[in-house]
Amino acid sequence: MIDILKRRFGLLGRNISYSFSKGYFTEKFSDEIFKGNSYENFDISEINHFAGLLKNNPDLKGLNVTIPYKEQVIPYLDKLSKKAALIGAVNTIKFTKNGKLKGYNTDYYGFKKSLKPLLESHHKKALILGTGGASKGVAFALDELDIPYTFVSREAKENIIDYNLINATTFDNFQIIINCTPVGTSPNIEACPDLPYEFFTDKHIAYDLIYNPAETQFLKNAKERGAVIKNGLDMLILQAEKAWKIWNK
Q1: Angle, nearest 10°, between helix axes 133-144 and 107-115?
Q2: Of 126, 160, 181, 221, which has the fewest beta carbons less than 10 angstroms from its beta carbon?
């Protein structure tokens, strides 16, 4: 059993009062086994405030990282795990015994483990909506699952298509649609990515990294056409537990 001294952890992000992580770890730490741990939100308006946060909180032992800092935080770290370096995004920071900051990515792990039970032989290719830090972890997981993917953004770039190009043929070719954008997050629950939802079928998976609301408009629209749907809650729980292991190893 891990000995629990008074240890502080937290979440780095912007506008994170809704935070899943704070609620999750606060509940976890209410258990007598974990007594002495605490978890708090570190809501900063710009990443350049991160250095001051570290200076003012020298006793921190670990941080989760969320939007919009999964990529921006990397220059402030001393080291990256091999997978975080390959992914190019960090959502977990470990404060090492010698005072160094090491970045990890547990998003890919949570996504991969939560998607895998849904996969069937006809799920061949994936569309990733969004190109931010979260999408990079998703792409890495798909690589490990040997599922080819294409990114979708509001502007077409090299290896990225825009939403205007998505049509019936796209849905024939891509059977897994993953929303990695914040569109549809509470309180803007009526919003959804700009897709021709009529082309979803029962051969499709619609996966939304959003967990609040539990069923986004994106998922509702896909479900109406028979698609298998999944929100991001299991992914979050899995990545949080992986972060906890990293902080304690």
Answers
A1: 50
A2: 160
Residue 136 among the catalytic residues: no
Distance CA(19)–CA(224), nearest Å, equals 29
DSSP 214-228: SS-HHHHHHHHTT-E
**Residue with more model confidence, 32 or 26:** 26
* pLDDT of 74 strictly over 90: yes
CB 64 within 8 A of CB 12: yes
Q: Which position among 22, 70, 112, 242 bears the catalytic label?
A: 70
Contact (CB, 8 A) for 57 and 4: no
Candidates 221, 245, 212, 230; CA nearest to 16 is 212
Answer for the pair 94, 246: CB distance below 8 angstroms, yes or no: yes
- Please choose, from the candidates 63, 128, 70, the residue with its C-alpha nearest in 3D space to the C-alpha of residue 94: 63
pTM exceeds cut of 0.70? yes
